[in-house]
Design brief:
Helix content is about 35%, strand content about 30%. The protein has 9 helices and 17 strands. Strand 2 and strand 3 form a beta hairpin. The radius of gyration is 21 Å and the shape is elongated.
Length: about 300
């Protein structure tokens, strides 16, 4: 059966994290958003799997304040039977603790497709509910050579350069705030909420690097911006990007995307996780189209729930 253990005991078994949102630093940063953080491991046999989750309103969630959560594992080729048995014990834990519900969002497949495949299969076979998967987008930087398959995008990039648009990574606080303000403008004009303040981003920046970018026109006005996380050794994650609305010139986003891809390719990253292209399983067709025309791949992000029978 599963047992709650101390952070120290848990970490004696799991010294590496598959992604930044289940590191102790990030968990400590957001722990005030749940009532209790639990570290779960089995108390019998080989300890190859673990779970950090939040308990709130009698529900267990992973994540409780992040794009995705999921499980720790000691190595990529954990036996399927161990995953299957762990999920069975997780249901027993929920019943024993009188929980009303459990929910899990697994990381996108680029973080570990083999582990995801085994978990999703085991979840379904154990009677968990697979919710409508969300669509996520990502770019394989090893296959991006700096050229575009679509002529229009290449022409827009050339037009941006001809019109003296500039792209830069900014590191001073004033410029970082200006980058954030461009994003706020973009979200506000599109009627979309922004769930992180500038101070929230600075808190994350104390755990791992948060990169801020600005695109300026020839007059020096801020017309585009992006904010990316570097919390993984091989995968950088796009958190926000956008341009000023109403738009003052064409090609801003094409120019921004091109420079972002080249920037992180030159830093040696393998992938850029460009996050969700849907909301609660409902696709944003325009966003999917934009990413795919910029040579991104669409794949699934899985949400799984389980409610004990009453």
């Amino acid at each position: 059966m599963l047992t709650e253990t101390s952070k120290e005991t848990y970490r004696s078994h799991f010294t590496e994290d598959p992604h930044p949102y289940i590191t102790e630093g990030f968990i400590d940063l957001v722990k005030q958003k749940t009532e209790k953080v639990v570290h779960l491991i089995t108390n019998e046999g080989n300890i190859s799997l673990g779970l950090i989750a939040g308990l709130k309103d009698n529900e267990l969630s992973s994540p409780f304040s992040a794009p995705f959560g999921g499980f720790h594992y000691t190595h990529d080729d954990v036996y399927y039977s161990e995953i299957f048995n762990f999920l069975a014990q997780l249901k027993e834990y929920a019943v024993d603790q009188h929980l009303n519900k459990m929910s899990f969002i697994l990381p996108p497949n680029i973080y570990n497709s083999s582990i995801n495949a085994k978990f999703v299969n085991a979840f379904v076979r154990q009677g968990y509910t697979l919710e409508i998967p969300d669509l996520v987008s990502w770019i394989d930087l090893n296959r991006f050579n700096g050229t575009w398959k679509r002529k229009r995008i290449a022409e827009n990039c050339k037009s941006a350069i001809k019109n003296n648009l500039t792209f830069s990574l900014v590191t001073d606080e004033k410029s970082m705030k200006e980058s954030y303000e461009v994003i706020v403008n973009n979200r506000t004009q599109l009627g979309r909420e922004i769930f992180m303040s500038f101070d929230d981003l600075m808190d994350v920046n104390r755990l791992f690097p948060v990169d801020f970018f600005l695109v300026k026109n020839k007059e020096g006005d801020n017309i585009g911006a992006a904010i990316f996380y570097r919390g993984h050794p091989k995968i950088v994650q796009g958190i926000f990007w956008g341009d000023i609305i109403p738009r003052t010139s064409i090609g801003i986003m094409d120019f921004l995307v091109f420079n972002l891809f080249i920037h992180y390719k030159n830093l040696g990253f393998d992938y850029i996780d460009l996050a969700l292209s849907s909301k609660s399983g409902i696709p944003n067709e325009g966003l999917i189209r934009f990413k795919e025309t910029h040579q991104c791949t669409s794949s699934l992000r899985y949400t799984i729930t389980w409610t004990p029978e009453i």
